[in-house]
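Write out this protein's structure.
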Amino acid sequence: MPGETIATDGKVLRGSYQLEEDNPYSTPHPAIMLVSAYIVERGLILEPVEVDSKSNEITALPELINLLALKGVVFAFDAINTQKKLAS
C-alpha cells in the first residue's frame, strides 16, 4: 500500500439517537458517530470505527490511523482535521 491515498471522514448516523426516556425498548443515547477510511486507488472502504459518545472525530482519527498501522501512504483529511495539534 505504500504510495496509495487514504481518505478519512467522520459521519453521524442519521436517526441513530434516542431521546425518549419512556421507551421500554431502548434507553436514551446520543447519535452514533463513525470514522472511516477509504483507499482511493482500490475503491475500498475499510471498516469504520465508532467514536466514543464522550469524544469526537478529531480525537478518534489518530486512533484510527494507529489501528491501520500503515507506512508510506498519503492521508487526505477534511477541514475539521487540519488543526495544528493533529499534525504533530
